[in-house]
Predict the structure of Membrane-binding protein.
Amino acid sequence: MTGEPNNKDYFEISFILKNNFSKIFSTNVVRIDKMPDITVKYGAEYEKIPKVGEVVTEKNSKTGFIEKIKYRDFNNLIIIEFNEKQVKISESNFLLKNLKFKKITEFYENGNISLIASYDNGIVIGEFKSFYENGNPEKSGLYLEDLKKDKTWNYYNVDGAIVEIEKYQNGKLVDQ
């Protein structure tokens, strides 16, 4: 971003084709009002970490509903988040030795799992599974560093039947 004396910032938006991170689809230059500095957090490094056996709840100041529950064991910080209807929407497990790495499970409002994945510094890595709202799998596979797909990736229809199988080796599609 380049700042101008008139308190406007300019930045470029690039669109890339799905599964082809090197090819730009289109670009735009956007002019926006200068925004204050923000802190981006990819993990739990800014979270208050409870003592072993302590449970910390964060409530919405207006409704009194629980938004977040945090607790820990000897190796992990666990954070459970709820929506405004008090439905669990995610459960994250952070390693205390690396609070930027997390294993996360996200949920639909009906309680079914929507996503199981691990993230390191905000980037998905390792086993990845997404699910349809009815609980059936949508896709599953393995990510290496830099979002490179590896090994077998399975894609399913809403009824749970496999509709496509792709095999990757270090980010390159080797069989379909």
